Amino acid sequence: MHPDAQIVTDVRHWTDRLFSFRVTRPKSLRFRSGEFVMLGLVGDNGRPLLRAYSIASPAWDEELEFYSIKVPDGPLTSRLQHIKVGDQVIVKPKPTGTLVLDALLPGKRCYLIATGTGIAPFASLLREPEMYERFDTVILTHTTRDVAELAYGADLIERVKNDPLVGEECEGKLLYYPTTTREESPKMGRITTLLQNGDVARDLGVPPLGPDDRVMICGSMALNLDIKAICEEAGLVEGSNSMPNTFVLEKAFVG
Ligand code: A2P
To answer: Does the global pTM surpass 0.95?
Structure first.
């Protein structure tokens, strides 16, 4: 057994492109909700094949959850997608990342802007009680190509609402804004467009993005850069662990 091996306790396939899984938690692992770790399998050459994965469960959870794309010819995910309960997965107990509450200054509203598997770090943060202590309103936007790819987020919102720790705290504070770009759904469009044309503010009954807002961004490189520009236009400044400010971003890993 690899010294960093953990045991798979649950696997769920959401679409033919997406799955989530839970593993036992390394005894030595301490992390902040929103951080990522290196995760993988032992490769054919006997050496670990690792990729960065955001932890999708909160810091207080006794297990770790991850949400992953399945890349057919991806060296890791082509194999990882076949894991079953009882299998071993390597988790390096060295968490890091910028999508943490410590990197943001206090504010009124906090936007969590995700595309695709970029929702993973926010799945962790939405079950973190501090999220609702720090902000009056928490807005999760999740944009995917088609409706089926919204399922993990929709299920997450239900889990958050029924969570013994944050279920009550999030009441009246948590707003969910799912959109699709390539299949008909109640709200269609790229989140960049919907922020800029005023739809998000109108639909949610909040003021347009401004200095009172805080933003966390997690998607493709292009999405991150486009939302970063929108944040900067709204007067927000990128923060980090050492220099907290009004928005933070991180690339969604794997795929
Ligand atoms: P689109 O369908 O218009 O490309 P992916 O599955 O490729 O990771 O994309 C996830 C979602 O992110 C898709 O709905 C996609 O929209 C959207 N997206 C990708 N790049 C950007 C961007 N630069 N700005 C806004 N939305 C984006």
So the answer is: yes
